[in-house]
C-alpha cells in the first residue's frame, strides 16, 4: 500500500534493519479504508477473493500488498450439483470493505476459507500472501493459510505457509515456503528462505538460505513484538 506521506517518509520506513520503527504519525486522507472492526486496508492493495478471507480486526494491509483469497480449496461437486470452480475476483479497493471479519478460529472445517488473519497484523508494501498448494488425488488443491495475532510481514516477502503463530516478525524480502509452520514468538531475519514443510519452534530467530535457527528470542520477545502501538500510529 501507499503508506503515509509525511516529510520524506516512505512506505518502508515502518521497517528498518529488521526492527519495527515508529510509523509516521499522519496518514494521507483517504489512504485507507477502515472497516467496522478496525482493519485498515490501503486503496492500493491487491485483494482477490475477499469472500474467502477472514480478518480478525485491527489489521493493516499496506500498498501493493497482494492477498490471494481466490486460491481456495473447492469441495468436490455432488452428482446433482454443477461443477465448482475457483472464483477469481478482480482487485479493487471497493471489495476490501466486504472482506469477512471474524475470528480466525472460525475457519476450522471450512474449506472455502483461503486465508485467515488474526488481530493486529501488519502486511507491508509489496508482500504476497498465497495459500499453499499440492497435488491431491490427481487434483491441484490449495489449503488454508492462517496467521495468528501480532504478525508483521516485511516488505517484498512471499508467504505460502500453512500456519504462522502469534507474535511473529518476518523480515523484508523473506520467502516462507509451502506448508511451513512457524510457532509463536519467532523472528525471521531479512532475506531468509524457509524451505517447504519446515517447522520453526517457538522463541527462535532464523536466518539463511535455506533457513536455520541462529539464536533465541529473549523472554521479553512477546512484548517486543506487540503491534498495538504501531497500529495506533497509522
TrEMBL record:
Region (Disordered) location = 72-105
Source species, domain of life: Eukaryota
Q: Where, if anywhere, are coiled coils annotated?
A: none
Q: Which SUPFAM superfamilies match?
A: Trimeric LpxA-like enzymes
Where is this protein found? Cytoplasm, Cytoskeleton
State if Glycoprotein is listed as a keyword. no
Q: What is its main location?
A: cytoplasm
Family assignment? Belongs to the dynactin subunits 5/6 family. Dynactin subunit 5 subfamily.
Cellular component terms per the entry's GO annotation: dynactin complex
Question: Which protein is depicted?
Answer: Dynactin subunit 5
Sequence ranges of Low complexity compositional bias:
74-105
The record's keywords, sorted A to Z, are: Cytoplasm, Cytoskeleton
